[in-house]
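User: I'm writing a tutorial on reading structure tokens. Could you give me a worked example: one chain, its sequence, then its tokens, then a sentence or two explaining what the tokens reveal?
Assistant: Sure. Here is the example chain.
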Amino acid sequence: MFSGVLEEGYAPDLKDQELEVIGSDPFLIAYAMARIDRTVVTTEVSSPAKQRQNRTIPDVCAYFGVRCINPFVLNRELGFKTRWKG
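And here are its predicted structure tokens:
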């Protein structure tokens, strides 16, 4: 799965420098792909125009059909509340 995420989600011919920029993102996405009940949580936002090593987690997740949410959605879904009055 990991190699598929790299080749299809980013690019099939990534250079070492590009892999350094990507970091561990493909591992996270591949892990989420292994089971349907997994969700990726990230603060990154979609930027479909970005290519190769600059692709964002939400865009790669969308390509593979992996659910991807931000921390605010996570908190809402888990029912976290604060006592702050605003």
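What the tokens reveal: The chain has five helices and two strands. The first helix runs from residue 2 to 10.
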